[in-house]
Fold:
Amino acid sequence: MSDIPEPDALDGAPHPRHAAQVFGHKAAEATFLDAFTAGRLHHAWLISGPKGVGKATLAWRLARFLLATPEDDGGLFAAPKPATLDISATDPLAHRLLALSEPRLFLLRRPYDDKTERLRGEITVDETRTLRNFLSLSAADGGRRVVIIDSADEMNRSAANGILKLLEEPPAKVTFLIVSHQPADLLPTIRSRCRDLRLAPLSPPDLSDALTQAGAEISEDDRAGLAQLAGGSVGEAFRLSHLNGLKLYAALIRLMSTLPKLDRPLARAVAEAGANRKTPEAFDLTVTLLDALLARTARAAATRTLPPEAAKGESALIERLAQIPDAAVIWADLAQHLGLRARKGKAVNLDPAALLMDMLLKVDETAAQVVNR
Structure:
């Protein structure tokens, strides 16, 4: 089983259930703890926010707390109300959760297909039927049970309808912890039956702490650059680190520093590297980083403030491209459409190198309009 990939884990990072702490989301933790101690614990919590900000980590922290905390029977010798969500790492329950052997927890996620030896692309109704069977059985000790859904965005329509039926008539002492990156795309009836815990992007210090906890071997200088490009997502920071994203971003800065007379040979080299079939993730990474540069330029033009550098020479480049009054609108509009068009072209099998070169030429064309005014 250890060789089977987990769909809810990042490449190169430990699974969220291994994280001892959650960084940057004290308000969400306090909201949940207040509901618990007041005896108003909702049966379903929608943990939403951008990818990689710690939603699954929080879900596992809440599950540990719920399953390890004794129920208050109101007796004279009842335990005091908990002041934190902390559960000792030596607690037997914590060990069972790490091993995925806790009988009172059900993890709903994309399954592994033994026939194709690959993870399935979505959560199907078969998995929700298995969950229904789990819920039809009473807990051995009559205590709480927890269901983690990671992520609800991956449920197909039939699976979503199956979950909706369970939320409409929730079993006693069962808490649903539902992770979603795009809650607006969920069935409105699912959202209406959940209490929302909305998580915001992490601050640079919290992101750095989360990377340390996950065992990331990243230099302090690289952490600063990743914090600028990852948008407060430790997941995106891991992806950029894993794919040498900072090195590629530095190459893009060197290339863009030749604007508005784009270095065509260097541009072709960047486009061809992004279209390399041996590294299929390179195309999306190149588009993502180019999007990031355009967005950072637009933001700097709007606020008249340069961001901390994510790569050497970035500040000088952005200052030159953001000097006219309407530069913010120009670059924001380009950022909104350019990457989307490239990804759509890739989806219909257009030449990825040509798509990337087209992006770079559009940026060059726009830079000529901005710089030469």
